[in-house]
Amino acid sequence: MTLALQGASAWLACKEQSRVVRVDTRTGKTLKSVRLRAPVIAVASGFGSVWALDSSATLYRLNPSSARIVKRVGLPARAPYNIWIGGGSVWVADDQGAEVLRVSPRSNKVVARMQVGDGPADMAFSGATAWVVNHRDKVLSQINLATNRARKLVVLTGDAPERMVWSRGSLWITGRGTDLLKVSPAGGSLEATIEIGPSGIDIAADGDNLWVPTRSAAVDQTGFPTMDALKRVSASSGAVSTVFRPTSRFDVHGLVARSGIVWIADNTRGRLYRLP
After folding, report:
1. Low-confidence residues of the chain, pLDDT below 50?
2. For residues 199 and 119, what is the distance between their CA atoms, to the nearest angstrom?
3. Taking Cα atoms as reference points, which of 191, 204, 268, 271 lies closest to residue 231?
4. Residue 222 burial (CB count, 10 A)
5. Could you report the per-residue pLDDT of 220-253, keeping only the tens digit for each?
6. Which of 107, 166, 200, 239 could be joined to 234 by an S-S link, Cβ 3.0–4.6 Å?
7. Residues of the chain with CATH 2.120.10.30
8. Which distant-in-sequence residues (6+ apart) come within 8 Å of 180 by Cβ?
9. pTM for the full model?
10. Amino acid 276: pLDDT
11. CB of 213 within 8 A of CB of 226?
12. Which fold has domain 1-115?
């Protein structure tokens, strides 16, 4: 249900078929398909590997060249959710356990568990610090990566803030019933609220550009990731522009922005989009 890029390959998590699929971004052809033991819920790229997470709380490490599984890591998580790469580690959220798990790419073992809040949904990293946004209690937590200690920064506005990036010295957060919030990474104070429509589905940063697929008020009530428009926000000025409006149903299950190109995975229709 997510998307990762590595070199000229896009890796997609296919939940229903319990597969990780590798696509050549130059030709659009499927190169590999790796079946896992349970439904795949996330994929990420980092430390020379591709990492996949399944619903049985198993983290898989794949060789990106051969697409073979080289390591399986069992996680002490009741409801694993998503993978992030940052702070020299691989991270997985335990949605029901209200914590995030830190996995060392050297030992392939869980080296720390941190209580962060109810419903950890996304993480961001900068230097020796990480942040976690929790979509149920709306708490923004800060983690000292040297000590693995987490502390509550602030309770955010919005119905369910659940997507976040770090860019230009600030945290940028959106989600269901939530505008684009510019938040101080030090103390959690709200620096600006940027109107993007009823809500943002996801957010990706590429240079000064923040890319936010938004949804309508009707879709926001359902929580479905069906995009109304793709918007570009300048991290330096806050200026907002609409760059794309789909003419038919367009769901956003994975979003990556890199080198001026936006990649979106729509698993409902089984499509990978490239938007220059």
Report:
1. none
2. 18
3. 204
4. 10
5. 999 999 999 999 999 999 999 999 999 999 999 9
6. 239
7. 128-276
8. 172, 173, 174, 193, 194, 195, 196, 200, 203, 210, 212, 233
9. 0.96
10. 87
11. no
12. Methylamine Dehydrogenase; Chain H (2.130.10)
